[in-house]
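Our platform keeps sequence and structure together, in a single record for each protein. Such a record has a labelled line for the sequence and another for the backbone structure tokens. Nothing more is needed to write down the fold, since each code stands for a local backbone conformation. For reference, a complete record is included directly beneath this paragraph:
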Amino acid sequence: MKATLILPLSVFLLSACAHTATTSPSPTPTSTPSPSPTVLSAEASPSARLITRDELATHTTPADCWLAIDGKVYDVSGFGDDKHPGGKAIYQGCGKDATVLYNTRPMGSGTSHSDKARSFLPNFYIGDLTQ
């Protein structure tokens, strides 16, 4: 008796799948790619994480480096090891407000970072510095 129920049920299920496959609309290609979910905007949400100066001060090593620039906190852990054009100089700002350091690059040219460098900041943004 089980065999007589299974066979008709299997045929029904297979035909339903085949019908769905032939009648489902094909996806329409989009001309613009969707944004990466890992990229955060520094001007992001009104519900941005608030980070105290005390919490910021606990992230002071190259492997765990948070720094603040203009009131925004960025996690740049490991970035100076081989990705940062200024090398390990970025780690001078770990655990503190690095706005002056970022804007003057005392170990480099003494000038502020370029617009291109600033465009990378949102990739590292993790929250806002509270007073």
User: Anything to note?
Assistant: The domain at 50-129 is CATH 3.10.120.10 (Flavocytochrome B2; Chain A, domain 1). The helical segments are 2-23, 53-56, 79-82, 99-104, 115-120. The longest helix spans residues 2-23. Strands lie at 50-51, 60-61, 64-69, 72-75, 125-129.
